[in-house]
Structure prediction request, 138 residues.
Amino acid sequence: MKKFFKIYRNRYMIRPTVYQTVYRCLAALVLSLLWSRYMDQNGRGVSFALQVFGIILCIFSWFRYLGLDGVHIFPSRQKDKDQTRKKRFHLPDIIDFTDERVSPMDELEEEEKTACRLASDLISGAVLILAGVICAYV
Prediction:
C-alpha cells in the first residue's frame, strides 16, 4: 500500500483517474439498466445489477493492486504491439495551446497507469455498491 501512495502523490494523475472513474460508472449504469430491462427474471431491479457491477469492479481493483506488486494475471502485450506497429504519419494534438499540462494515459508510465486504474476501479466500485444499496432501500 505504501507503493500505491508513493506513486499516487503526483497531481497529474488525478485527471486520468477522474475520467476513467466517470467512464466506468456510466458504463456500469448503462449495463445495469440494460440488465434490469432485458435479463431480470426475478424482479430484483437495478439495485442488484449495480451491486454486481460494483463487486466486479472491486475484484478488478484487487487484480490491479496485485499488478503493482508485479503479479500479472494477464501478461501485457504492449511491448509486442509497439514493435510491430509503425506510425505512418504523426497528427498533432488538438490541445496544443493550453496553459495547463495535459497528461493523457499514453504519457504515463506503466506503474502510474496501473495506479490510476486501481483508484478508478476502487472508486467506481464503491460508488456503484453505495448506489445499489441506496436504491434497494429507497
